[in-house]
Amino acid sequence: MAEEQGREWDSVPKPSVLFLHPDLGVGGAERLVLDAALALQARGCSVKIWTAHYDPGHCFAESRELPVRCAGDWLPRGLGWGGRGAAVCAYVRMVFLALYVLFLADEEFDVVVCDQAICIPLSLCSEPGHTVLSSVMC
Length: 138
What we know:
Number of domains: 1
Radius of gyration: 16 Å
Organism: Pan paniscus (Pygmy chimpanzee)
Largest sheet: 5 strands, parallel
Protein name: ALG2 alpha-1,3/1,6-mannosyltransferase
CATH topology: Rossmann fold
Order of helices and strands: HEHEEHEHE
Keywords: Transferase
GO molecular function, one term: GDP-Man:Man(1)GlcNAc(2)-PP-Dol alpha-1,3-mannosyltransferase activity
């Protein structure tokens, strides 16, 4: 019985999963995104991560095993001294990233996992039938 269920699971087409994350550095949210992406990839899903900032020299080693694309790194990460405006800048960077992926990147995907709620309405502008998930980090 268990073998039959295992064979049925293997015959199901695996979705293509796209992660949108503002800054793929070293932190708790980044760890969560990477763990989820690696787990899905281990299950046979096609996984891609899009981010507004990625530095291969300052990231978790596992991120180098995944296809990571970057768009919007030229946008500011803050508005002044002491990290002022970091949240506003992260919001703007994610809007730019979502619009870039939807309209310019020519990506094909079945599921989008967004790290900020702003991506949900923007991701819904994509073709019908896509699933959009949010993992808002507080």
